[in-house]
Amino acid sequence: MAQVNFVDVLDDDAIFEGSGWDALVVVATDISQSGFDEVTLLAEHGAKVDQRVGQSPTLLFAPGLAGGRLIISPVKNSQDDFEDVRIFADAARAGIKLAKDAGAIRPLLVVASDSDERYQFSTQVAALSCGQELWQTLERREVSGDTPAFEAIGLFNSTQASQSLNAIEAGRNLARDLCGTEPERMSAAAFADYCVAAYQDSGLKVCVVEDRDVLERDYPLLSAVGRSSFAVSRHQPRVVKLEYVGGGEIEHTYFYAGKGVIYDTGGADIKVAGGMAGMSRDKGGAAAVAGLMKTLSMLKPKGIRVVAELGLVRNSIGSEAFVTDEIITSHAGVRVRIGNTDAEGRLVLADLLSHLRIKAEKSVKPELFSVATLTGHVVRCFGGYTATVENAVAKQAGVAASMANLGLAWGEPIEQSVLRREDFAKIVDPSGAADILSSNNGPSSVTARGHQYPAAFLLEASGLSAHGVHADIPMAFTHVDIAGSATEGHPHYGSPTATPLVGLYKYMTQAEK
Question: Which of 162, 450, 463, 472 is most buried, judging by how many CB atoms fall within 10 Å of its CB?
Answer without folding.
Answer: 450
